[in-house]
Amino acid sequence: MAPALTVTETATENVTNALGSVSLKAEKGPSYPRYLPHFDASEKFPPTPVREFSDPGLRADPTKPNLLGPGVQVKQISPYIGSEVRGVQISQLSKEGLDELALFAAERKVLAFRDQDFKDLSPERQIEIASHFGPIQRHPTSGNVEGFPEFHVVYRDADHQRFREYRGADNRAIRTSWHSDVSYELQPPGTTFFWILDIPENKAGDTLFLSQVEAYKRLSPEFQKRLEGLRAVHSAVYQAEYSRKSGGPVRREPVESEHPVVRQHPVTGEKALYVNPGFTRRIVGFKEEESEYLLKFLYDHISKGADYQIRATYEPGTLVIWDNRVTVHSGTGDFPQEQRRHAVRLTPQAEVPIPALA
Ligand SMILES: [Fe+2]
């Protein structure tokens, strides 16, 4: 069983691809109505430009004096992935502290910061802090916040179940849906912010995370050599088609990007698998059956690796920061349909993935 922590997640892409306005008719309305998902089918974005990126972690003091000073408590969740942190406010960090945060997130893969005031900052300030880690991705189909297309809103309640429909949850035996956020982008996200606003009444809605570094390390040197140099196609097409079919926004025409199957982290130098069932569609240069065979093996390998996975749980004030380049994650559909879960993500984009070569 994956070690239990106390964090949460972004479920999956399009979790909140609810259409129309979100009503406040429930007995108890959402705690943060300002962040209810906003859908405007006429909203359009230009294609995402290629942008210069230098990871802030490269500038960080490896001893992290500005992030992990006196009084800060760090608890390991599992040896390979995940730390829980108390006693520091992300909102108060200096630029040096934010650089150290980038490094720490890369090293530990997932960080669960407790008792944060981040959720009560202004949207402008939230965006300013997250922008330290790269230009914020604007999601092409999911709910955002009116006036702030940088936010990706995760929202479910009794009346808004688009996520379940998107994933076909009602006709699936297993609800786990491993993915790396928007990996179809040419510059997929790195240091990613996700914070909870409303936790389901049954205290569920956790997030599973796993280390793609450890998943790669478990393979034999011969198999690793076969993977290195391969590239795979990551596609936004299905997500866009679903949104279009549902009358939702397609703010940018869907993109497909080829990424290395094994990528190297620019700060730690660690090699990580970089395929995920959510968005990776095929191996470049392989015939269809070969591609399906290899991807099926890798997805099985990832999903069965309970000793390099964690379960992140949420408390009021939890802010989870993960490195999306070296992890995959999945929401857990373990709360009743009528209960509300509300969270927000800011998704800074990082470098064009660096291929790991033997
Ligand atoms: Fe996600």
Query: Whole-number average pLDDT?
Result: 91
Helix content bin: 10-25%
CATH class: Alpha Beta
The amount of beta strand, in percent, is 15-25%
Strand order of the largest sheet: 1-2-3-13-5-15-4
Q: Give the tally of structural domains.
A: 1
Could you tell me which ligands this complex binds, including any ions or cofactors?
A: fe (ii) ion
Q: Which class best fits the helix and strand makeup?
A: alpha+beta
Distance between the termini: 33 Å
Number of strands: 16
CATH architecture: 4-Layer Sandwich
> If you consult CATH, what is the topology?
Double-stranded beta-helix
Assign the CATH superfamily. Clavaminate synthase-like
Family: Belongs to the TfdA dioxygenase family.
Keywords: Basement membrane, Dioxygenase, Extracellular matrix, Iron, Metal-binding, Oxidoreductase, Secreted
InterPro entries: AtsK-like, Laminin_IV_B, TauD-like_sf, TauD/TfdA-like
GO cellular component, one term: basement membrane
Which terms would index this structure?
358 residues, alpha+beta, Double-stranded beta-helix, 3-stranded antiparallel beta sheet, binds fe (ii) ion
